[in-house]
Write a structure and sequence with these properties.
The protein contains 9 helices and 5 strands, in the order ααβαβαβαααααββ. The chain is an alpha/beta fold. The chain binds cobalt (II) ion.
Length: 211
C-alpha cells in the first residue's frame, strides 16, 4: 500500500464509524451547513481547527494560511469572510495563531525566501508597529517570537474590524464577535489573547460612516 492510500482507507473507516454512531449524520449535513464560527488559522499541520476545539463537521467554517493572516487585499480570505458573515451568518470569528509559528519566525529573519517575502512582509509590519514592546524581550526561549505571535493575532483581529464586511454586520446585526487566540504546540491548550465584541469602535480612520 502506498502511504497516501492509508488516508483513503482511514476515510472509509471513519465514514462507517460515523454512520454507526448516527445513521442520519451525513443525510443531515448534505444539504445545509449552519456553522456559528469562522476559524482563521495557520496552515501548520499540527493545528487542526476541529480536532483541538472538539467541533464536528458542520460546526466550524475554516480558512487557513501561513501565520493566520488577515490581509486586506487577499481575495481568498475576503471571499471566505464575506460568505461566512453574510450568508452563513457566523456569530464568532476566531483568529488562532500558535506558539513557535514558523511563518512568524521567518518574518523575524532576514533571508530572501522568494514569493513568500511578500506574505511575510505583513508580519514584519506588525513587528514594526510593536517594536517598543518586542525589542526589550530576549530572543532566547522564543520569548520575542511568542510575543510577536500574540501581537500578530491581535493585529489580525483588528484587520477584520477594519473591513466593510465586518463593520456592516456589526451595524445591522450586532455580530460577529471577534476573538484572538494562540494555541500551544507543547501542551495542546488555547490561550485567549484579545477580544473585540461586535460594535467595538476602532480608530476612526478605519471606520466607514456610510454603511
Ligand atoms: Co504557523
Amino acid at each position: 500500500m502506498k502511504p497516501y492510500e492509508r488516508l483513503l482507507l482511514e476515510n472509509k473507516a471513519w465514514a462507517a464509524e460515523m454512520l454507526t454512531e448516527d445513521p442520519e449524520f451525513f443525510a443531515r449535513l448534505e444539504h445545509i451547513q449552519t456553522p456559528e464560527y469562522l476559524w482563521i488559522g495557520c496552515s501548520d499541520s499540527r493545528v487542526p481547527a476541529d480536532r483541538i476545539t472538539g467541533t464536528q463537521p458542520g460546526e466550524i467554517f475554516v480558512h487557513r494560511n501561513i501565520a493566520n493572516m488577515v490581509v486586506h487585499t487577499d481575495l481568498n480570505l475576503l471571499s471566505v469572510l464575506q460568505y461566512a458573515v453574510e450568508v452563513l451568518k457566523v456569530k464568532h470569528i476566531i483568529v488562532c495563531g500558535h506558539y513557535g509559528c514558523g511563518g512568524v519566525k521567518a518574518a523575524m529573519g532576514n533571508l530572501d525566501l522568494g514569493i513568500i517575502n511578500k506574505w511575510l512582509r505583513n508580519i514584519k509590519d506588525v513587528y514594526r508597529i510593536h517594536r517598543d514592546i518586542l525589542e526589550p524581550l530576549p530572543m532566547d526561549d522564543n520569548q520575542r517570537l511568542n510575543r510577536l505571535i500574540e501581537l500578530n493575532v491581535q493585529e489580525q483581529v483588528m484587520n477584520l474590524a477594519k473591513t466593510s464586511i465586518v463593520q456592516k454586520a456589526w451595524k445591522s446585526e450586532q455580530r460577529p464577535d471577534l476573538h484572538g487566540w494562540v494555541y500551544g504546540l507543547n501542551n495542546g491548550l488555547i490561550k485567549p489573547i484579545f477580544d473585540m465584541p461586535a460594535g467595538t469602535h476602532i480608530d476612526p480612520l478605519y471606520e466607514f460612516d456610510n454603511i
